[in-house]
Amino acid sequence: MSQLDADSERIRSLLANHAEMFAQLRDESEQRPPNFSPAAAGAGFALQGDRLALALQRLHEASVRRHQNRLHHFDRLGELNDTIQGTDELNASELRTRGLDE
């Protein structure tokens, strides 16, 4: 029989560390939106400059959303980790009451 050996505290710590890293990335990204002037594309390239500025803005917004989604995933993983830990504790308690913990 295979055993599940999950160190819930370690998992919780790792999730918190990674969530903090992604929160910082999201915050930094939000604070530094693209600063591309369509005029920088050069004379005669106004349309291309507008398209490039829009593409950079959309990429920026997608990156911020991706970081936010990742943070949501870390929250969900934390909830699942708590569920696993609670179930493990409940099962261990039941085994102890039946004298089957060894």
Structural class: mainly alpha
Low-confidence regions: none
User: What form results from the Cα inertia axes?
Assistant: rod-shaped
Number of DSSP helical runs: 2
Helix content: over 70%
Q: How large, in whole angstroms, is the Cα Rg? A: 24 Å
Summarize model confidence as the mean pLDDT: 90
Distance between the termini: 15 Å
Describe the main β-sheet briefly: none
Query: What's the total number of strands?
Result: 0
Sheet-strand content, in percent, reads under 5%
- SSE order, as H and E? HH
Plain-language structure description:
This protein is mainly alpha-helical and 102 residues long. It has a domain at 68-102. It has helices spanning 8-31, 46-97. The mean pLDDT is 90.
List keywords for this structure.
mainly alpha; 102 residues; rod-shaped
Outline the fold blueprint.
Blueprint: H1 8-31, H2 46-97
Helix pairs in contact: 1-2
Short description:
With 102 residues, the chain is an all-alpha fold. It is 75% helix and 0% strand. The two termini are 15 Å apart.
